[in-house]
TrEMBL record:
Protein name: TetR family transcriptional regulator
Gene3D superfamilies: Homeodomain-like (1.10.10.60), Tetracycline Repressor, domain 2 (1.10.357.10)
Entry-linked Pfam families: TetR_C_1, TetR_N
Gene Ontology terms: biological process: negative regulation of DNA-templated transcription
PROSITE patterns associated with the record: HTH_TETR_2
């Protein structure tokens, strides 16, 4: 792998246009509608539309109409819809980061990263609808990655291990974020959290699920845990927190084994 430095102009040519725009590597148009528009203004309006009506509602025509310009005017600033999506995704990641904690509070730091990432999916429900096409390459997105790496900085891990832990946590955050987003959407559409969890179907399931057919599921359904019926009696906590704590337990065990020298690479 080469570490050869390139000029900003050369870097811009290596990136998708949307990513180059996010880094400020592309000069704004010198001609246009009195230069009254800006990339930030276009992206902000696109996010406003997506937050309200979903990603499918975002089009250059609709954004231009909302801003009082023509769609062709927008293309002078952002070359394509794909480039706009890159910029929207990066803008959604422009969130305040938590203050740095001392090294021994690494679990709390990782928890803050995961919960902060989940919050992005809930605030911008369309965020998870943008397909993953590669590694993060835009400034705010990389800032999130840097945030995740912060508690790992002084740990006895190599770079591969650090990034693998970040991918583990980000994958969990994405899963939980999209699940919570879907719950939010269902509730907004007229459902309820009880209906989504299955509480309304608990009695029916307890009648239909028989131990002969479902020997492992049967006791769970009968206990009410499957539908969250006895959640008040559950001392573990919610699913997100429980799963996150187990991930952190695994990371802690791995670190302890590394320190004791029982892991050899």
């Amino acid at each position: 792998m080469s570490n050869e430095e390139v000029t900003p102009e050369e870097a811009a040519k290596m990136l998708p246009a949307g990513a180059a725009l996010s880094w400020g590597l592309v000069k704004p148009p010198q001609r246009g509608p009195k230069r009254e528009m800006s990339i930030d203004q276009i992206v902000s309006k696109a996010i406003e539309i997506a937050d309200q009506d979903g990603l499918a509602a975002v089009s250059m025509n609709r954004i231009a109409s909302a801003l009082g310009f023509t769609a062709m005017s927008l293309y002078r600033y952002i070359p394509s819809k794909d480039d706009l999506l890159i910029l929207m995704q990066d803008a959604a990641c422009d969130i305040p980061l938590t203050p740095e904690r001392p090294p021994h509070e690494w679990r709390e730091s990782m928890r803050e990263y995961v919960l902060g990432t989940v919050a992005i999916f809930r605030k911008h429900p369309w965020y998870g609808d943008i397909p993953i096409l590669g590694i993060p390459i835009t400034p705010n997105n990389l800032r999130i990655v840097d945030w995740a790496l912060r508690p790992l900085r002084d740990m006895p891990l190599d770079d591969f291990e650090k990034m693998s832990i970040v991918l583990l946590l980000s994958g969990y955050a994405r899963h939980c974020g999209m699940l919570q987003r879907d719950i939010d959407r269902a509730v907004q559409a007229g459902s309820s959290e009880e209906e989504f969890s299955g509480i309304n179907y608990s009695v029916a399931l307890q009648t239909l699920v028989k131990p002969e057919q479902y020997p492992n599921l049967y006791p769970i359904v009968m206990s009410g845990v499957y539908s969250g019926e006895n959640e008040a009696e559950n001392t573990v906590g919610d699913d997100l927190e429980f799963g996150l704590e187990r991930l952190l337990d695994g990371i802690e065990q791995y670190l302890n084994r590394k320190i004791s020298g029982s892991i050899h690479k």
